[in-house]
Amino acid sequence: MLRIILPTARGTMRLEDGMRNWISSRSLNVSTSQWAKSMPSRPKPPNEDEFTEAFLKGSGPGGQKINKTSSAVQLKHIPTGIVLKVQATRSRTQNRKIARQMLADRVEELEKGKESRVAVVGEAKRMKKARAVKKSKKKYRLLDEAKAKAAQEADEPSAH
């Protein structure tokens, strides 16, 4: 039996005895840009002894269930004094996970400054927004110029 595996732009192609079978593969995605700036890795949550954790009763929308159960999580990072209260979901375990990741992000931002993941992602979003605003302004400026030119051309023949 003859088996040949070839990498292609869409994944891999396997040839078996003249039969062609396409196999999609995420690991061999050639379309990703090799020049793209890689994001810093996500920070690891701090050690258990570096913060205190408390479970509080929630508030806000969600009905009586939110107000009766202690599903909101409050974390206090002892070395920096950062206090977070998270009530993103009705689940205590999901809120704990979200709160720990947010605390890790905040601590990393304090330590690394502009090189932290949060700062890099924020800068990328800011630049994307600025490009969109610039493109929109250019589009409407060109439309206004075209309207002005059309109005000017319409006025000229009637003046003669």
From TrEMBL:
Per UniProt, the keywords (alphabetical) are:
Mitochondrion, Transit peptide
Q: Annotated Gene Ontology MF terms?
A: translation release factor activity
Q: Biological process (GO) annotations?
A: mitochondrial translation
Q: Which residue stretches, if any, does this entry annotate as coiled coil?
A: none
Q: Where in the cell is it found?
A: Mitochondrion
State a single Pfam family of this protein. Answer: RF-1
Q: Which InterPro entries match?
A: Mito_Transl_Release_Factor, Pep_chain_release_fac_I, Pep_chain_release_fac_I_sf
Q: Where is the Prokaryotic-type class I peptide chain release factors domain?
A: 47-142
Region (Disordered) location: 34-68
Example of a GO cellular component annotation carried by this entry: mitochondrion
PANTHER family in the record, alphabetically? Answer: MITOCHONDRIAL TRANSLATION RELEASE FACTOR IN RESCUE, PROBABLE PEPTIDE CHAIN RELEASE FACTOR C12ORF65
- Entry similarity comment: Belongs to the prokaryotic/mitochondrial release factor family.
Query: What protein name does the entry list?
Result: Peptide chain release factor
Q: Which organism is it from?
A: Hyphodiscus hymeniophilus
Q: What is the lineage of its organism?
A: Eukaryota, Fungi, Dikarya, Ascomycota, Pezizomycotina
